[in-house]
Amino acid sequence: MRSDSGSVGQEGLSFIAEARREQIKKAAIDTIVELGYAKASLAQIAKRAGISKGVISYHFAGKDELMEKLVVEFYVAGAHFMLPHLEAETTARGVLLRYIEKNISYIGENRHAIVAISDILLNFRDADGSLHFGHDGRNELVEAVAQILREGQEKGEFGDFDPVVMGSSIRASIDMVSAALHADPDADTAHYARELTALFDRATRKDPS
């Protein structure tokens, strides 16, 4: 009879490696929040994780790969968080308002991490000096909102306005909540959610009055 000890051992090693990567990512977020992106070296991250710099290098090619993982995984987790709420809505207006509300809810529930993520987005640059997460990612977020607005206009739920301009305004307002947490980590994100959903509910109506 074949022993399964080898496969079990491999699964155990994979679990340990994943736990180590999570430890490193958490330490990276803590380091960025404390020191800022520029000073968040692998040595500083290793110090807060209680490991050697070489352990980080074993799991990540360098700071750039680690930063990439932090941002991508944060946004993927956010999408998974919001999707069920958006799918439950039956109107474009419902989807729009839930999109705003749940974006801000996700920010509020991850207020420590969002400070680090925002710092990465503003400072992570490629070799040529351009922002690593540049206009393409931003445009995708705006276009996703603009598409909701277009569908609502086609169905007669929204008034006559430029969906891209309105979408940009909505995304900027959501990003403003992240900025508010930089200034005040205890900011009332639920209040922001209520105010911004009410604001854009009025702004997108056929009769904004």
UniProtKB/TrEMBL annotation:
Gene3D superfamilies attached to this UniProt entry: Homeodomain-like, Tetracycline Repressor, domain 2
Q: Show where the HTH tetR-type domain sits.
A: 18-78
Please give the superkingdom of this protein's source: Bacteria
Q: Which UniProt keywords apply?
A: DNA-binding, Transcription, Transcription regulation
Check the record and name the InterPro entries matching this protein: DNA-bd_HTH_TetR-type_CS, Homeodomain-like_sf, HTH-type_TetR-like_transc_reg, HTH_TetR, Tet_transcr_reg_TetR-rel_C_sf
**Pfam families recorded for this chain?**
TetR_N (PF00440)
Segments of the chain annotated as binding DNA: 41-60
* UniProt protein name: TetR family transcriptional regulator
